[in-house]
Structures are given as C-alpha cells and as structure tokens.
User: What shape does this take?
Amino acid sequence: MRAKILLVEDDASLIELVTYNLEKEGFDVVRTGDGEEALTLAEEEKPDLVILDWMIANLSGIEVCRRLRRAPATANLPIVMLTARGDEADRIRGLETGADDYMTKPFSPRELIARIRAVLRRLRPALSGGQLEFAGIAM
Assistant: This one.
C-alpha cells in the first residue's frame, strides 16, 4: 500500500525536488501552493500525511494546520511543517498548533523522508510496511 502525501508548498523548484524524492521512495504525491485548496484536498484526497509550508497563498500554513486539527475528518492527520521560519518561537508555535514534526529550510531530502517514515510509523502503523503472518494469513 502506497502512502499518499499532500505537499503544500508554493516554490516550484522545491515542489519538484520534494515530489521527485517522495515518488522515488514509493509515495504518491498530491500538490498545491494554496492554503484553502490544501484544506479541500485534505478532505477529498484523504492523504496519509501533509507536508506544510508556513508561507503559502490565501491561508498561512499555521492556519491550515489549525483548521485541519479542528475538523473531525482531519484531526488526526499527520502534519510535517517544512518552512524557512526557523526561529525557536516559530518552531514552538508550529508544534503547539498541531504539527507532528517541524523542519526548516534548507533541508536534506533524505532527512525529510526519514522523518515522514517515522511519523507514519508512529501514527499509521499499517503504512510502515510491516506484515504479520499466522497460519497462512498475512496482514
């Protein structure tokens, strides 16, 4: 089962870099650079995780995070903030608003993938790739 990632980022070159690396690692990627569209896509596409920039069009990433946490359908959706806002106060605000992890730009794509896998392992064990077998039945 391939995990679906909603990438909310407005920098075209960064979108291509992250999408390439995620798809190479076996993830499906849905992309937008708009905060309001991100909320719609989160409900329609039912992603397994959101990568969210703080500074995006129409709604800030922090507001998108807040709204995702308030909505029952997306309240438990894993969120990784990926943003240039690296001050301690910004990192704390992002995490307190509901992000499960917070990375600052510039970043290592390999570290981003590792953090995504760690969050998914904790919050969505079915996506970790593990398989249980008993009496010829695999789960």
